[in-house]
């Protein structure tokens, strides 16, 4: 049974400030084009969006770091950024959020991943992606390893943000998990690839339902098949815990032979962009602040409920989570 004691969760949140959390993964720049639609194009059956404004936000591992920063923790961010306009903009956004970029490696030949979303009347019309998913060279991966090695000693917890853009390699992640185990540090993985074998030995893996279905090979069509997929993934990854996020159905935590469902607390859902980043950031932070994984999952559920009630790549503040819990 998962504890939902409000006083305990409030104590955990009060210990958030200053917690150093290492974040290793794929950095993304989220580009939003905001506009209105009042007609259909005569050239094709598509809406004509009248652009009102544009905005840039941190995505991927950078958004995980932002979520930690908003919760007053100390993100230690490691990854790669291209030497291009999008890379410059991403670094500018990090500086604006007062997140250190000292652990980032700039790579001249690499395209910084940028996702452009066109939004009209609070609805996403379409998305375009520009990215490089080529496997980094051994030299670059060695630089990434050196970068996270500089932070391992001080980090209280570790987050691997895998958006399948190349940084989270099959070589690098097992090494990081092994070192985390040796140093007895909590390590959580947000997976995007279909093969979860690289995550073996992690403290926690947090797929969504679709990712769990693909990785487990179990077609999920009811609660029984869902439980089967979760148990199979827990066995495949040998992780201590598995948390499957289920959108409007909340999330389910698997530990050993047991599982517990946590219903959603979201009142309104405007945008799920970056919700997984909010979950893994708040959950890892909660564990390092003294919560059990079950308690941390409940807290993360509240954080996600706040984030999806906002439009765009959003984060939940300590006060907002406290209000949701209260």
Describe this structure in words.
- Helix content is 36%, strand content 28%.
- The chain has ten helices and 13 strands.
- It has a nine-stranded mixed sheet, sandwiched between helices. The chain has a four-stranded mixed sheet with strand order 3-2-6-7.
- A hairpin with a 5-residue loop joins strand 11 and strand 12.
- 46% of the residues are buried.
- The mean pLDDT is 91.
CATH level-two architecture: 3-Layer(aba) Sandwich
Percentage beta strand: 25-35%
Using the coordinates above, name the CATH class.
Alpha Beta
Q: What ranges have pLDDT less than 50 throughout 5 or more consecutive residues?
A: none
For the terminal residues, how far apart are their CA atoms?
20 Å
Class inferred from helices and paired strands = alpha/beta
Query: What quaternary form is this?
Result: single chain
User: What is the total number of structural domains?
Assistant: 1
Strand tally, please? 13
Largest sheet: 9 strands, mixed
Rg over CA atoms, rounded to whole Å, is 19 Å
Strand order of the largest sheet: 5-4-1-8-9-10-11-12-13
CATH homologous superfamily?
Ribokinase
Per the CATH scheme, the topology name is: UDP-N-acetylmuramoyl-L-alanine:D-glutamate ligase
The helix content, as a percent range, equals: 25-40%
């Amino acid at each position: 049974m998962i504890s939902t004691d409000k006083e305990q969760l409030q104590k955990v949140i009060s210990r958030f400030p200053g917690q150093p959390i290492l974040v290793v993964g794929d950095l993304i720049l989220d580009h939003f084009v905001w506009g209105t639609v009042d007609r259909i194009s005569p050239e094709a059956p598509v809406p004509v969006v009248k652009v009102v404004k544009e905005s840039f936000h941190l995505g991927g591992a950078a958004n995980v770091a932002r979520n930690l920063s908003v919760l007053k923790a100390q993100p230690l961010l490691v990854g790669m950024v291209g030497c291009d306009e999008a890379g410059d903009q991403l670094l500018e956004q990090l500086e604006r959020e007062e997140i250190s970029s000292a652990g980032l490696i700039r790579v001249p030949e690499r395209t910084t991943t940028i996702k452009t979303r066109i939004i009209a009347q609070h609805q996403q019309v379409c998305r375009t992606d520009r990215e490089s998913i080529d496997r980094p060279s051994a030299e670059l991966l060695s630089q990434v390893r050196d970068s996270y090695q500089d932070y391992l000693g001080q980090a209280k917890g570790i987050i691997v943000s895998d958006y399948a853009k190349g940084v989270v390699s099959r070589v690098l992640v097992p090494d990081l998990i092994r070192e985390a185990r040796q140093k007895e540090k909590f390590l959580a993985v947000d997976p995007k690839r279909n093969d979860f074998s690289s995550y073996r030995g992690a403290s926690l893996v947090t797929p969504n339902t679709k990712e769990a279905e693909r990785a487990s090979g179990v077609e999920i069509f009811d609660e029984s098949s869902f439980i089967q997929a979760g148990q199979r993934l827990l066995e495949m990854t040998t992780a201590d815990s598995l948390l499957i996020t289920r959108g409007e159905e909340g999330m389910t935590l698997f530990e050993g032979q047991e599982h517990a469902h946590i219903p959603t607390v979201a009142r309104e859902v405007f945008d799920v962009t970056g919700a997984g980043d909010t979950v893994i950031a708040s959950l890892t932070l909660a564990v390092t602040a003294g919560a059990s994984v079950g308690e941390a999952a409940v807290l993360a559920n509240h954080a996600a409920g706040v984030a999806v009630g906002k439009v765009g790549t959003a984060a939940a503040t300590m006060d907002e989570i406290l209000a949701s819990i209260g």
